[in-house]
Structures are given as C-alpha cells and as structure tokens.
Automatic annotation (TrEMBL), chain A:
GO terms for molecular function: magnesium ion binding; oxidoreductase activity. SUPFAM superfamilies: Thiamin diphosphate-binding fold (THDP-binding) (SSF52518), TK C-terminal domain-like (SSF52922). InterPro entries: THDP-binding, Transketo_C/PFOR_II, Transketolase-like_Pyr-bd, Transketolase_C. Residues 4-179 form the Transketolase-like pyrimidine-binding domain. This is Alpha-ketoacid dehydrogenase subunit beta. Its cofactor is thiamine diphosphate. The keyword Oxidoreductase applies. SMART domains: Transket_pyr. CDD domains: TPP_PYR_E1-PDHc-beta_like (cd07036). Keywords: Oxidoreductase, Thiamine pyrophosphate. PANTHER family: PYRUVATE DEHYDROGENASE E1 COMPONENT BETA SUBUNIT, PYRUVATE DEHYDROGENASE E1 COMPONENT SUBUNIT BETA.
UniProtKB/TrEMBL annotation, chain B:
The keyword Oxidoreductase applies. Its cofactor is thiamine diphosphate. It comes from Actinomadura rudentiformis. One of its GO terms (biological process) is branched-chain amino acid catabolic process. Pfam families: E1_dh. Keywords: Oxidoreductase, Pyruvate, Thiamine pyrophosphate. The gene is pdhA. Residues 48-312 form the Dehydrogenase E1 component domain. This is Pyruvate dehydrogenase (Acetyl-transferring) E1 component subunit alpha.
Length: 338, 365
C-alpha cells in the first residue's frame, strides 16, 4: 500500500505496463519529454526512450488512426487525447474503425488499444476543456468505456484496459487527478471490467454514480447519514460493460434509486441506467428512479460551473423527492423485516 | 544558417511537370523518362493477363448487381493499369490498404473473389482474412485508411520487417483531413508507405476542378516532405515502373512516396449512379481511346511479346474465372443471425448474451 495521487497511480500503471509488455507504446500530444499537460506520462520517455513514449504531430484523428494501424501490426498503443473536447476530431476513427474492426473482420482483426481522455469539469477550465463526452462512446457498440473514481482503481482499471483484448476509451476525471489515497500496485489480478463496486453500504436508497460523481455521491451519503437516511453508493467503474447485477441487487435491497452524473442529462448514461433499473426492479421500487445531472447546456464558464455541477445539495434535494412519506406501511415493514 | 528543417532538396521531392509515360495512347513507345526503369518483359505480359482477367471480373460483378446477387458494385473499368500495377509492385509480404473501388486489385492479389465480394453481397462486411492476405478491409470512410497504412508501416519498421505498405485512395479522398494527417505523419515518421492516388477525375459527380486548386494532386506531397510523382494512369508500363520505384524507395529507408495516376472512371460511380447527369458522353468517348488494355496489348504485340494465341489464352482464362465466380455467387448465401453478436467484443457482455438469446427465441417462433 502506497499513498499517491490519481495522476501518480495512472503514471505508475503506464510505467508498469511498458515494463511488462514490450508491445505497449504511448503516444499523443506533449506526452514525451513534457510528460503530458497533466503529467500523466511524466518520466516515461526518459525511462523507456522516445521509441516507447513519443510526441506525435498535432492531429487527433491521426493519433487514433495511427494507433489502429499499429494495433493491426501487433502493438498495443495507449494514446492520449489532450482534453475531452479535443478528441472530437478523432471521432470518425473511433466510431468507424476502432469500434468496428473486430466486427467488420469477423473477429480476425482485434484492436487492443487504449484511448485515454481527461474529461469532465470542476477544475475551472475555460471552454472546450470540460466536456463530459462519455455518452458518445458508450453509445457506440464495440467500445469499452471505463472511468475510475478512486486512486487504486485508476491504477488497476488502466492496467486492465491495456491488457484487454478490445479497444477501451479510458476516461480520466481530471478533477480527481490530484486526489490522494492508498493504491496497491503489485501482482496482476483478475480484471475489474464489468464489476461495479459498492463504495458505501446503505438501506434507504441507492446512489449510482461513476467517475467524478462518485466522491460527490459519497459526500452526500455522509451528509444524509447525519439526517438519519442511509444511502448506498455504487461506483460503476466501467460504463461498458455495464454491471446490471450489482446495481439491480442494490436497488432491490433499498427500493429507491438516484443516478448521479456530471454530464448533461438528456440522452445520457444516467437515462440508460434509470431505464435499466426500472425494467429490472419495478416491483422493488417505492419511488420513481430519479436523476441528478448537469443541465442541458454547453459547459459553463469557470465562474459559473458550480451552478451546473451536481453537488451534495442537489443530490440531497433529489433524495428528498424519493417519496419516503408516501410509502405504504406494508412495503416499509416488509423491507425492515428483510 | 540553413532555412529548411530537412536535408532533402525541393527538386528531389517534386513530381515531373508532365505525367510520366512510357507508352503513347496508340501503343507506341515514347522516349523513356529519366529515373525510372522499364519493367521486365515477363512482368508486362503477366500484367496484361491480369488486366484482361480484372476487366472480366469487373464486368461479371456489374452483371451480378443486375441479377440481384450483389447489393451494389463500384466498377474500376478503365483503371486496370492502376489496379494491376499496384499489386505487381508489391511483394507478398507487403500490405495493401484498399478502398471500395479496388476489388480488381484484391482479386489480382489472389484474395478469393467470393470473399472479396462478401461486402457487396451482404453476407458480412469484410469477407477475407486481413492477417493472412495482408490486405486491410476495403475502406469506405474516405481517406481513413491512409493513416492506418502509416501505422502499419511504422509497426512493420519497428518489427524489423522490410515490408512496405501501399494505401490506395481516390482523387476526392485527397480533400479529406485524414489524407493530410496521414501524409504528415508518414513524413515525420519516415514510414515505409506508398500513397497511391487513382485520380479518375470524379468523386461520385464532383469533378476534380471542384476538389482542388492544386496543379496536380501529386503536388500535395511536397508540403509534407514526401517524394512525389505523377504518372499516366492508363499506361501500365509507366504506372508499374513508377510504383516499383516508389516501393523500392520506401523499402530501402527513403521514407514515404506519393504517386498520382491520371486515369478515368469509365462507368458510373456505382451501378446505382447515373453519370449522364454530370458528364458528357463525348468526354467518356475521348477516354475510350485512352483505354489501358488495348494500349498495352498493341505495345506488347509491337514488341512481339504477345501473340494472338496468348491473347486468346488470356481471354479464355478470364472467361473460366468469371464462370466459376458466377457459379459460386449463384449459390444462396448462408448466414447465421446469431453470429451478429459474436464479434462485438472478444467475450460478449452479459447484455449482448441476453440479446443473443432474445434473437434466438425470436428465430424459433
Ligand atoms: C467520409 C466520407 N464521406 C462521404 C462518403 C460518400 N462517398 C463515397 S465514395 C465518394 C466519392 C469518392 O471519390 P474519390 O475519392 O475520387 O474515389 P472514387 O470513388 O472516384 O474511386 C463519396 C463522396 C464516404 N464514403 N466517406
Ligand atoms: Mg475519383
């Protein structure tokens, strides 16, 4: 166990992957001597040489297209998009090739590659630096979409992503880069893909969150506990593959569900989760599944982002709307008994 | 202080002002250009056979659309010199990154014609194995394959293989951003890749003049530090000679090479297109007289490399090939709807397994 920041955990994961597998390569904009604008690739060029970690010309479609060709040629590229909104030039490559190559070729050409994207807001970034773009990728069949919320997960989910036989969009909540916690780099273990984590156990309602929203959900659960409400917090870790089982068993237990996401709400990942929960837990639900999301607006300027981002208050207000007072006694008693 | 950032001189990179040519439209030899060697006689005779077969395949594929056996077919009639020279310039261990228009090249490369036509027949997307054939899936999103080609070239170089990669692209595709990103990456990485532009004068209906203000597409290379050439795309001897030099250049560490072949798409964009809406018949007729096949035939006959019997044999072989293809394509296609779930991921997610089960039960009803 070592205390480190999420940025350091990601750096350690890249370093260990480079060390263990010579097919692993890192490239992107400023990832070489500079170590990336967030320093996630700090020191890698120095340790492994320009051959293994290198700067590319400034062109995102080119970065991803090059990764496609190199993965076809037997390498395992891990590329960095500098910011969420600057990955858009690569969208055609991602949607038409990265996501589809295995399928188009009947399984003959897999593309084991990772596209790392620092995403979402909360750091006072100016426009085009704070988009929550996960839904675009999650909506594209053939992509795995991963987003860590803890320091230890940052290390292990990135290792899992690099080892995965399929392309992974690895979304790094940039406001958590400087969060510090224990991490456990070390011997390989089974992949955590498709396995959500219950971060806090609770009785009265389930908060489902991922990436940057997990710490906010945990704070809300802490605050609610003070008011006598016991909230369970589920961290998805991987949006694709989605862990229905963990989410469903939590909601069946608590009978109430709030989905928390920082992204704008309309047609977002939270909408998918809400639909899945009500399809599977209808008879266990004592209230409609509610969502706490950003508003359906372009990401706000730095001085206004706090009005947009879901915070503890917005989550608690939403929990309040879970119709605790309306609950028929019989349901309540049944749950108490179980 | 030198002003440039590289040691190559501008003249080394620039294409010839007039497209390279070995054989005139009437099949007579012209003064050979400097810097390019004439291909071996046997290779030219082999190219002739392949062009005859390629054209027959192309005609057969178009016929198959009329019978409803293919959903659509983009013909390359008139572009056979490019299709065949592109393949002959490569070794078996080189890679090809083709477009939807390049089926004739794939067949000439030895890819099973039924597997080539899988995409257009509708049984799956890519029907052949790219890993064993070293032919990437035929690419439809324009120009996106050119940057994959650079990545593959870089991968081969790193693995110490001396294979090269050839990326095919059309004139319209050179306007796409990915083409420029690919040229730039290839230049910076000095990747062993040859970009082969078949300028057939149209992108569906849009003529070249609306596509670019460049004096020729081959001039797009110099801005990226890439050696470039333009060639008469209906002169097999010239295309093969220039591509052979381009491949040699790439293979021996000279870096990427861009070749523009001036040719013409004789048929409509696909069988579903109506070319009379955007071009005049007399333009098409003018290009008939530049047809690459009779040109090569006359040239080889003139040099006594090809006799009447050889010509007949080439056509017989092409007929036999077409007849086999027809028979195979007339068999009803076997498909398995449940395979739809097999290749999304290495291991299907629980959600895909559920959906697979759902479709399976729908199929039972
Ligand atoms: C990115 C993209 N935009 C549009 C199309 C639709 N489209 C298919 S072929 C074509 C014309 C391409 O012309 P050119 O590159 O000259 O190749 P040719 O068809 O003449 O061989 C167009 C516009 C496409 N396939 N991909
Ligand atoms: Mg064209």
């Amino acid at each position: 166990m070592t205390a480190m920041t999420m940025a350091q955990a990601l750096n350690a994961a890249l370093r260990d992957a480079l060390r263990e597998d010579e097919r692993v390569l890192i490239f992107g904009e400023d990832v070489g001597p500079l170590g990336g604008v967030f320093r996630i690739t700090d020191g890698l060029t120095k340790e492994f040489g320009e051959d293994r970690c290198f700067d590319t010309p400034l062109a995102e479609s080119g970065i991803v297209g090059l990764a496609v060709g190199m993965a076809m040629g037997g390498f395992r590229p891990v590329v960095e998009m500098q910011f969420d909104a600057f990955a858009y030039p690569a969208f055609e490559q991602i949607a038409s090739h990265v996501a589809k190559m295995r399928n188009r070729t009947r399984g003959r050409v897999p593309l084991p590659l990772v596209i790392r994207i620092p995403y979402a807001g909360g750091i006072g970034g100016v426009e085009h630096h704070c988009d929550s773009s996960e839904a675009y990728y999650a909506h594209t069949p053939g992509l795995k979409v991963v987003t860590p919320a803890t320091v230890d997960d940052a290390y292990w989910l990135l290792r899992d992503a690099i080892d995965d036989p399929d392309p992974v969009i690895f979304m790094e909540p940039k406001r958590l880069y400087w969060s510090k916690d224990e991490a456990t780099p070390g011997d390989r273990r089974a992949s955590s893909f498709g396995r959500a984590a219950v971060r806090r156990e609770g009785r009265d309602a389930t908060l489902v969150a991922y990436g940057p929203s997990v710490p906010v959900a945990l704070q809300a659960a802490e605050a609610a506990a003070g008011d006598g409400i016991s909230l369970e917090v589920v961290d998805l870790r991987t949006i694709v593959p989605f862990d229905d089982e963990t989410v469903v068993s939590s909601v069946r237990k608590t009978g109430r569900c709030v989905v928390v996401q920082e992204a704008q709400g309309f047609a977002g990942v939270g909408a998918e989760i809400a639909a899945r929960v009500q399809e599977r837990c209808f008879h266990s639900l004592a209230a409609p599944v509610l969502r706490v999301t950003g508003f359906d607006i372009p990401y706000p300027p730095p001085k206004l982002e706090h009005s947009h981002l879901p915070d503890v208050d917005r989550i608690l207000d939403t929990v309040d709307r879970l119709q605790f007072d309306d609950e028929p006694d019989v349901l309540h008693l049944a749950r108490e008994a179980s | 202080m030198p002003v440039g950032t590289h040691d190559q001189t501008v003249d080394d990179l620039l294409p010839a002002v007039v497209p390279v040519r070995f054989v005139a439209e009437d099949g007579t030899a012209v003064e050979p250009p400097e810097g390019y060697a004439a291909p071996a006689d046997e290779q030219l005779v082999e190219a002739y056979r392949r062009m005859v077969l390629g054209r027959r395949f192309d005609r057969q594929a178009t016929a198959l659309t009329k019978q409803g056996r293919l959903a659509v077919y983009p013909s390359s009639r008139g572009q056979e010199a490019c299709q065949i020279a592109g393949v002959l310039a490569l070794r078996e261990d080189d890679w090809l990154f083709p477009t939807y228009r390049d089926s004739v090249a794939l067949v000439s490369r030895g890819v099973d014609p039924v597997e080539v036509l899988t995409l257009l027949r509708g049984g799956w997307h890519c029907g052949y194995d790219p890993a064993t054939t070293r032919v990437a899936p035929q690419c439809t999103p324009l120009a996106t394959q050119t940057i994959h080609a650079v990545g593959m070239a870089e991968a081969l170089r790193r693995k110490g293989e001396d294979s090269v990669v050839m990326a095919f692209i059309g004139d319209g595709g050179t306007s796409e951003g990915d083409f420029h990103e690919a040229l730039n990456y290839a230049g910076v990485l000095r990747a062993p890749v040859v970009f082969f532009v078949q300028n057939n004068k149209y992108a569906i209906s849009v003529p070249l003049a609306k596509q670019t203000a460049a004096p020729a597409l081959a001039y797009k290379g110099i801005g990226y530090g890439i050696r470039s050439e333009q060639v008469d795309g209906n002169d097999l001897v010239a295309v093969l000679s220039v591509l052979t030099e381009a491949v040699r250049h790439a293979r021996t560490g000279g870096g990427p090479f861009l070749v523009e072949a001036h040719t013409y798409r004789m048929d409509a964009h696909t069988n579903a297109d109506d070319a009379t809406r955007y071009r005049e018949d007399d333009e098409v007729e003018r290009w008939e007289s530049a047809d690459p096949l009779p040109r090569l035939e006359t040239y080889l006959r003139g040099r006594s490399l090809l006799g009447t019997e050889d010509i007949a044999a080439a056509h017989d072989a092409a007929e036999a090939f077409a007849s086999r293809l027809r028979d195979e394509m007339n068999l009803d296609l076997e498909t398995d709807p449940l395979e739809l779930f097999d290749h999304v991921f290495a291991d299907a997610t629980p959600q895909l397994r559920e959906q697979r089960a759902q479709l399976a039960s729908e199929l039972e009803d």
